Amino acid sequence: MFYCFLRIILKLNSYMIFLNKIIISIIPFLPKGVVRFFSKKYVAGIDNSDALNAVKILNYRKESATIDILGEHTSSIKECNDITNAYVELLNKINIEKLDCNLSIKPSHIGSDLNYKSLLINYTKILKEASMHNNFIRIDMESSKLTDTTIKLYNDLKLTSSNIGIVFQAYLHRTEKDINKLEKGSNIRLCKGIYKEDSSIAYQNYNEINKNYLKLLKIALEKELYVAIATHDKALIKECVKLVEKERIEKNKFEFQYLYGVPMNEHIEMYKNKNFKIRAYVPFGKDWYDYSIRRIKENPKIASYVLKNIFS
Ligand SMILES: Cc1cc2nc3c(=O)[nH]c(=O)nc-3n(C[C@H](O)[C@H](O)[C@H](O)COP(=O)(O)OP(=O)(O)OC[C@H]3O[C@@H](n4cnc5c(N)ncnc54)[C@H](O)[C@@H]3O)c2cc1C
Q1: Total of domains in the chain
Q2: CA–CA distance, 159 with 273 (Å, rounded to integer)
Q3: Measured in angstroms, how far is the CA atom of residue 210 from the centroid of ligand 1?
Q4: Average pLDDT in the chain
Q5: pLDDT (tens digit, 9 = 90+) per residue, 14-45?
Q6: Which portions of the chain are predicted below pLDDT 70?
Q7: Active-site position among 68, 138, 189, 287
Q8: Cα 282 from Cα 198, distance rounded (Å)
Q9: Does the C-beta of 91 come closer than 6 Å to ligand 1?
Q10: Same domain, 19 and 150
Q11: What is the pTM of this model?
């Protein structure tokens, strides 16, 4: 009986690997319209007004939001400046419309591919505007090539403003040390990590990543950091809820986050019933196509998630 079950699991697993391989090989040949059809659910639209409308609906449903302009690895100064200005404009609009919404920004989108000075100048500009409106900026975490730069950026920005947060990835071996270096009150998002990383620096196994996630969450809460718990993993969410309840963590010391479009209704209902803060991560922008393709190619798991969610 057990072996029969094991064989079914292995068969399903090899079927998923095979399916992922097929999806990845056909992606470059898919018409843009088809990719748009699949990514539409996860991308709020193309311009500011699309994103702000999505946020209005979320706020109406008593959910906070964080907006991300899609794109990464910008290599021209002009483009980095344009994106920086677009973020500043967004902050103004969020303020005028009195929305409950902050921003999540990728370092490689506004300067890390140019040089550290440009990166710092651009974040400082956006953060200044955010602080003026009592808003908040989170620095997204990209691949391990950028971990040190991102932490340095966070520390440098923290010298002049407290309205800044960072992200840590539970799959990286180094994260425990990084979190232990933070001071009380720091604001982190804890996620599993989306980039393909080598086994010498990152856990690869689902159980190991989840185990480390819970360990890191416990450390972060004990250190009295503010933690945005960002996962859709039902088993993991259950353990996180157990932990915050067992440790009687005050509800203003953490929030739950999810990616716009991922079906989380049941969990959102549960968070609301427990009076937990909820935030949706809302990506938008004209770079949706390149971004979607890159992400799916880099992490084939996403392709199967998207398919699973379409048919769920
Ligand atoms: C708010 C938020 C911000 C994030 N920011 C970062 C960041 O800055 N840096 C970084 O490296 N990673 C980031 N991530 C991604 C994260 O690291 C994981 O790769 C991703 O969330 C999948 O892991 P999981 O915890 O949801 O668990 P998994 O075990 O991978 O997934 C559990 C279930 O969630 C669903 N699911 C998960 N991801 C998706 C998806 N993309 N589309 C559709 N369904 C999905 C599937 O049904 C899946 O079965 C962020 C995630 C969230 C929720």
Answers
A1: 2
A2: 38
A3: 12
A4: 90
A5: 665 666 666 666 666 667 777 777 777 889 99
A6: 1-30, 294-295, 297-300, 303, 306-312
A7: 189
A8: 29
A9: no
A10: no
A11: 0.90
